[in-house]
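We emphasize that the prediction below concerns an isolated chain of 315 residues; any contacts that depend on oligomerization or on bound cofactors are therefore not represented. The input was used exactly as deposited, without trimming of termini.
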Amino acid sequence: MQNRITQLFGIKYPIIQAGMVWCSGWKLAAAVSNAGGLGIIGAGSMYPEVFREHVRKCMANTSRPFAVNVPLLYPNVKEIFDIIVETGVKIVFTSAGNPGTWTSFLKERGIVVVHVIANTKFALKAQAAGVDAIVAEGFEAGGHNGREETTTLCLVPMISEAVDLPVIAAGGIASGKAMLAAFALGAEGVQVGSAFAVAEESSAHPNFKNRITTAMEGDTALRMKQLVPVRLLKNAFADAIAAAEAEGAGPERLLEMLGRARAKAGMFEGDLEEGELEIGQIAAMIREIKPAAEILHQIWSEFLKEKERLINIEE
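Result of the prediction step, given as a token string:
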């Protein structure tokens, strides 16, 4: 397939692996890129020197394009961007912040910039800032989420109509059927997170991966809405947050409960009760731990199969 997304990134399939904290290191990014998609290193969980090492190892293990995701709310963003320029990274996905702050810096250095948004207002701001593409991430997604709680089904067509840029759909996409639906809504690519979080190459702890494969409907919920909304698997920590929110806890109290390294404890170290377990609603459909290439190719083959099925439906 050739469209604006595959041409922009120089990839075979318009399937992008999300930049997930504690899950998307160089092994996962390289595996997805080698399979024909766009792998992403998630810089949000990395100190600058660790990030530099992941970039170098990714470059050593794939000759194909890959990207990095940089959440703009983190304090060491400038160091991360300096390393991106120094090492020659060609594609950057920014999120959780104002795209106007760093887009021109990156574009002036020949870097492709994509920004993640959850509403039309910020999609238009990202377009005005000069980004090359937009990720429209719906309420179903894991990790940091939009305050408006707009679902992917509603968000993608609104964003596709509001901007002239190519749109990548995210949130609740882990199959070819969902990918085809996203394309019908106006997307030209999809970003897949939860399905790749359980890939063999994911740096997530085996406890976390196994817990994802047993998740059922209703096992995730959006928490910490007064701080930074995040979708979590329900556990002792998530229940404590829910109780505090019910009592009217504000940002300071939630930040105190979150503490430091809570996400690392859950996703990277495997603490399934007191750790922060970020995952999307689509976890209820994920039942196996498989190689990243197999996950990508299953999505693509199902996309083609379902596309053909719809074409052959008689009027």
